[in-house]
Amino acid sequence: MLSLHGKTVAITGASGGIGEATARLLARRGAAVVLAARRRERIDAIAEDIREEEGCAAACVVDVTKADDLRRLVSSTVDRYGRIDVLVNNAGIAPIGPLADLDIDNWSAMIDVNLRGMLNGVAAALPVFREQGAGHLVSIVSVAGLSVSPSMAVYAATKNAVRTVHEGLRAESTDGVVRTTAISPGYVRTDLADSMADPDIRERTRKTMDAMGIPPDAVARAVAFAVEQPGDVEIGEINVRPTAQA
């Protein structure tokens, strides 16, 4: 029997990288997946690939900075499949740089996508989880919040804020209805560096990702491990990084 048969999972930031890998893996394990991102053509193509492999997939155009979009994602998932078992908050950006650059616009963008986007997901999914009597919130955080490097202060702050929200939601959910999992990747071979504003930082990060980064599938397997647990088991936090990463 497929390990996730009957589960319905919505995934933000699913047009590539960790989000795409997670959608493909969970679908292979039997889940119905809804891919959410801004790039319609890309998520439509991935969903079609999954269906061609006899998986169950749909796509929904979503900008996570807009609360209405997250509500629409959750409601359309419920309309299509009857419920939403898991919401994976994966969308994120990293236009990092030294604080001395005073790049307020990019600070705001990271807050809007990385933190507010996750909170919009909580606001959309939590009432449905409560109504169903069960639900699982998974967020892709970062080891950048565990050891803050130069140029990453604001990015790390947004990720640590997400980690804090998760712990708060866990503390409020001791009735067993809502489970939470924060997954913190290290270097992963994705296009995250494309969102980095500083060209020198962007190039250095790309080289590091190419040299030691793990594949997105490694993080997808961590997501699968967390959501495959029985309802009375919560995997609160997982760190996934290359063995070569300091």
UniProtKB/TrEMBL annotation:
Keywords assigned: Oxidoreductase
GO molecular function: oxidoreductase activity, acting on the CH-OH group of donors, NAD or NADP as acceptor
Pfam families on file: adh_short (PF00106)
Keyword Oxidoreductase (UniProt): yes
Presence of the UniProt keyword Hydrolase in the record: no
CDD domains named in the record: SDR_c
Family matches, as InterPro entries: KR_dom, NAD(P)-bd_dom_sf, Sc_DH/Rdtase_CS, SDR_fam
Residues annotated as domain Ketoreductase: 7-190
GO cellular component, as recorded: membrane
Similarity comment: Belongs to the short-chain dehydrogenases/reductases (SDR) family.
PANTHER family: DEHYDROGENASE/REDUCTASE SDR FAMILY MEMBER 7B (PTHR44196), DEHYDROGENASE_REDUCTASE SDR FAMILY MEMBER 7B (PTHR44196:SF1)
Protein name: SDR family oxidoreductase
Organism of derivation: Streptomyces xinghaiensis
